[in-house]
Amino acid sequence: MNLWRVGPGEEEDRRGKRAGARTGARGKKRSRASALPTTVLVVFAVSLAGCVVGPDYRRPEASAPAAWREAPAVNAPLSDAWWTLFRDEELDRHVAATLAANQDLAAALARYDRSRALLGVARADEFPDVSLDPAYARARTSGSVANRLPELETTLWRVPVDVAYEVDLWGRVRRSVEAAGAEVEGNADTIAALRLSLAATTASTYISLRSSDRDIDVLARTVSLRDDALRLAERRAHAGVVGDLDVLRARADLTQTRADLADAHRRRDNLEHALAVLEGRNAPDFTVAVRAWTPVLPEVPAGLPSTLLERRPDVAADERALAAASARIGVARAAFFPQVRLTAAGGIASDGLGDLASADSRAWSIGPAIHLPIFDGGRNRSNLQAADASYRGALANWRQGGIVAFREVQDALTDTRWLRERGDALAATVDAATAAAKVSRSRYDRGLAGYFEVVDSERQALASRRAAIQNDQQRLLAAVTLIKALGGGWSEGEAVPRQPVAGAGVSQ
């Protein structure tokens, strides 16, 4: 039998290898043990990732009237280009110019773009934040300080990569994104409401301007007739047929009509200036030529009251503000719970540029950070109360907006009905007053009536014609108001129309 004998050196070597193996095994166990809490934490965080605190938003119920009092419930949709119902190509051009160049609309579009950018900022929190911060430092310590340390010069090259990620355990990030998204949608609805308001204001201004043209035409013809009447009265007074009182009355009537004509021109000029501002142009450089104009009164279907709140962009904007306020309650509630951030850093560091690529220059760290709110002086509770109050305020605004919307439609329908009846009566008044003025003038020419009778009848005829023109204007404006109150053909989810961009800006 052969016996293998081992020398003292070999025995010590074997013992060292066995000890090293045992040490490595214990190191691996410690490594696994130290990694276990981190692994458990990550698994726990992932399991809670679907937890979202705060209320899940649902559009509140709102009561609506069963029917309008002044119109049948015809549920025909309005066109988005509703101004074409007035059959005036010049009106179409003015509205198009307003929507293309109005500066209030340009500012609203800029606010919409800002809200989209802020939505991107909110969404960025859903992803890890990765940054690279390379640095170089050269330092020298002083050798003349009190403790007489030796002079030391150091050089450090660092190329670290930092990673940070917030585990959205309680839905803070998701609620923030939800609120920002609702704000984007609300701004889009606000733009639609502004476009509708600008189109309605442009149409109303244009209608008022053309009605002023009709009024000016009537007054100008009346001035011409009364100028002729004054000259006739002066000739008759010179011949001794009538007294000076008729001349004075004719002169007073003429000057009063001229004053009314000047006031009508002033109103027209102001309307022209207002139209220039709407179209984003300078008033001194803007003119609207006078032309003959025959108004066309469109038939506007009122639709069903129950669908009104879905067809009004301003009410939709209030509802989106309500959704954003609801999401912010979740953001405020999430502040009461622990916040977990996973952080990691890795890179290379060396005192020499040539050693950066060596394995010994590698450095890294990883670990979670937990923020536990213990005492904050009531800040989180106050933020939650503020968010809840904001929601209640937004809810009241939305409900009030609906109530006002129903009232505006009903007012416009009521105006439409009574102005139509008033127009029929005024048409008959114009016919009767015009006939009476002709009879009075004929009696005066034959010496059967005094000039006071002529003046009175002609004033009544002029007043009735101007009242009829004003009533036509009010009926047209009531139609514009009704269209605006009904939402002007807008529907939820429409894309935001853009204006032509002038000048340089941030590329999209």
Distance between the termini: 90 Å
Number of domains: 2
Strand content: 5-15%
Approximate shape: elongated
Secondary structural class:
alpha+beta
| Overall mean confidence score, pLDDT | 84
CATH topology value of the largest domain: Outer membrane efflux proteins (OEP)
Q: Uncertain spans, ≥5 residues at pLDDT below 50? A: 1-41, 502-508
The strand count comes to 5
CATH superfamily of the largest domain: Outer membrane efflux proteins (OEP)
Major sheet summary line: 5 strands, antiparallel
Q: Please trace the helix and strand order, writing H or E for each element.
A: HHHEEEHHHEEHH
Do you know the CATH architecture of the largest domain?
Up-down Bundle
Rg over CA atoms: 41 Å
> Helix coverage percent of residues?
55-70%
The number of helical elements comes to 8
At the first level of CATH, the class of the largest domain is Mainly Alpha
